[in-house]
Design a protein that fits this description.
8-stranded mixed β-sheet; binds S-adenosylmethionine; alpha/beta
């Protein structure tokens, strides 16, 4: 593909992403499956261009509005070239338009606006534009994180690393690090999780024999830490209440030495369809996927479990705000009403999960969100309405959970500012402890 065709492809994909809730990754996949003539270099160029335009949409749109035009995917492409690739306005038409697959020529208004863009004082940008967040979310982040808010938002301008979890049932971290080294893959241990490995380069390991043989899983370090904090021991009964693809179930099973039971619940049976295959690959036999409805009709499934489960892990549906480095399109799509719905759903799920916990058993609440309303506020509300539960400080569980380093706080709450981790939250609640 020539430059003009690549740019036109990026503009078309950005249009598609803006028009539907479907994740960006899927749009890009569908686009290139229908255009087999495009080479891998074209695909890589377009993908990176699209992701950068999404990550830095706040800056691009601020500059567009300053020139008097309405933001659009087409303008985001032009401005990306000018602001991030150093292309000068006069050269745009020479290499980036025309041909059978290129974009239609610039209008006069666009040409005038682009000439103005390069003269803008970018330091005049408001916090939400500089941080590349919608204003309503930037306001929340500023309120919650204060002086650190700019750093938190800036962290989303970087790509997330590829992080692996070594399956302790089949391998040690040293074995896997040695194998990766033999293959010329640069990697290092994660600072907190004793099972984690961060790759220095963003390699696609989805077909790698280590993954296919169940010796590793792809899992962010924060998720590994949360699973360890459940302290699921051999012989325990565990419910992974929002199991999805089974990432937390598999991580907990790795510490259970094939003894005990994990019921993997989810209201979306489709999301759970790979659990058994992943479990087989990992040598795990104790996971039983169970589709639930999320309403009162689950009583038949829950009945025998009420008051008997040692660990209930609630990896709640959430905004996903901790993972927006990987899915930058999602931060532009989340609406305040949707966040409210999610917060209500999280409260409802906690209420439904709580009765399953045995006296002395534990409920772990986790989200891949950095927003207080989905995290700390959810725990505060839960403890108020469930006096039979109390918060076990994560600081006190850290060593017992086999985690490296130290953790001084009562809950595990991280943003993508440190250690390469996704933003994440986990709190551990015990039932039956006196309050
Ligand atoms: C954050 S994802 C879980 C990710 C998964 N635990 C993992 O590690 O791969 C949240 C899951 O909650 C499920 N969910 C949504 N509403 C639910 C409900 N009322 N009860 C149980 N699960 C629900 C969603 O289908 C989704 O799979």
């Amino acid at each position: 593909m020539i430059s003009a065709a690549r740019l036109a492809a990026a503009a078309e994909i950005l249009d598609l992403i803006g028009a539907a809730q479907t994740p960006a990754e899927q749009h890009i996949g569908t686009y290139f499956r229908a255009r087999r003539y495009a080479g891998s270099k074209d695909r890589r160029w377009v993908t990176e261009f699209v992701y950068r335009a999404l990550r830095r949409q706040g800056e691009l749109d601020w500059a567009t509005v300053e020139t008097g035009l309405e933001p659009s995917p087409r303008l985001r492409c032009f401005l990306s070239l000018l602001l991030f690739e150093g292309v000068v306005p006069e050269d745009l038409a020479k290499s980036w338009f025309g041909g059978p697959h290129g974009l239609p020529d610039l209008t006069e208004a666009e040409a005038a606006a682009l000439a103005k863009v390069v003269t803008l004082d970018m330091s005049a940008m408001p916090a939400e534009a500089a941080g590349n967040f919608p204003k309503w979310l930037a306001d929340k982040i500023i309120e919650q994180y204060g002086e650190s808010a700019a750093d938190v938002m800036q962290a989303y301008g970087h790509r997330a690393p590829v992080t692996l979890r070594v399956n302790a049932l089949k391998a040690t971290r040293d074995d896997i690090l040695a194998t990766l080294k033999e293959e010329g893959i640069d990697a290092e241990p994660t600072p907190f999780s004793p099972d984690g490995i961060i790759l220095k380069d963003r390699l696609n390991l989805s077909r790698h024999p280590l993954l296919e043989g169940g010796r590793i899983e792809l899992q962010d370090e924060a998720a590994q830490i949360a699973a360890r904090l459940a302290l699921a021991h051999p012989g325990m009964s565990v419910v992974d209440f929002c199991a999805g693809g089974g990432g937390k179930s598999l991580a907990m099973a790795a510490g259970m030495a094939h003894q005990g039971k994990i019921y993997a619940f989810d209201t979306n049976a489709r999301r759970m369809r790979d659990i058994q295959a992943r479990a087989t690959r990992a040598g795990v036999t104790l996971i039983e996927p169970v589709a639930i409805t999320g309403d009162d009709s689950d009583v038949d499934i829950f009945g025998p479990l009420v008051g008997s489960v040692d660990r209930v892990f609630v990896d709640a549906p959430c905004s996903g705000s901790g993972t927006w480095r990987r899915q930058p399109d999602q931060k532009w799509k989340l609406a305040p009403e949707r966040l409210d719905e999610l917060v209500a759903l999280q409260g409802d799920i906690l209420n439904r999960a709580a009765p399953l916990v045995a006296p002395g058993g534990r409920l772990v609440y986790a989200t891949c969100s950095i927003l207080e309303g989905e995290n700390e506020a959810q725990i505060t509300a839960f403890l108020l309405s469930h006096p039979e539960f109390s918060l076990l400080p994560v600081s006190a569980l850290w060593d017992t959970a086999g985690l490296d380093g130290n953790w001084a706080q009562e809950v595990f709450a991280v943003t993508p500012t440190e250690g390469g981790r996704d933003g994440f939250f986990a709190a551990v609640l015990e039932k039956g402890a006196a309050r």
